[in-house]
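Quick illustration, no need to memorize.
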Amino acid sequence: MGQDLLNIELKRDEFHRRLGGGIPMGSLMLIEGKYGYGKSIICQRLAYGVLNHDAKVTYISNELSTKDFFQQMDSVRYDVTEYILDQDLLFIPMFPLLGNVTFRKDFINRLMGAEELFKNDLIIIDTLSFILVQDNATEKKCFEVIKFFKKMANLEKTILFTVDSEHLNPNLLTLVRSMCDIHFELGQKAIGGDIKRYIAVNRFKRSKEFVNPIIPFRVEPNEGLGIEISSMI
């Protein structure tokens, strides 16, 4: 594995192989999908894989408290206790910062000004669309945010953010898509009475090996993210 890739390999699945061996460092990565399609579990799988290979992660969540995050990771056997204690993982629950009631109008600026959050190798923002649907999040502000993330990527920081396409203005969504290096779009379809989830890899720049354009996956208790062997499309 080259030094220019974030290694995400786990013995429990072959996700890393489907993605060409790892995530290119300095990438701006977008995971897009509706509520319940699996954005967070993919973020958690990537975070855990990176942590297992001596890289450091910042994880910002607008859905989970610290307790919820620990419980969620434990439920899929992604034990992060040691990484938290060793300060290899910095988890930031967004709601306590916001008082769980109102959204500060200067939150975007406060986020970009918090240098400590961007010192680690992988920075996950789950979800960015929560921030960009605020009243002060104009197209100009969105461009400033993505430009800031690009600047961080140029410093070899990998920035991963999720968006819910149903909650984001189409113009902002188009802008976000156009500026990312890696773009996953999550979907699901009914097959034989079951609901199958999949990742459509719409863009993947600087891959070292072949990247599967469609990656079917499942989420299993006590197992985490599982990659389906057979093709679904």
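The chain has a mean pLDDT of 88.
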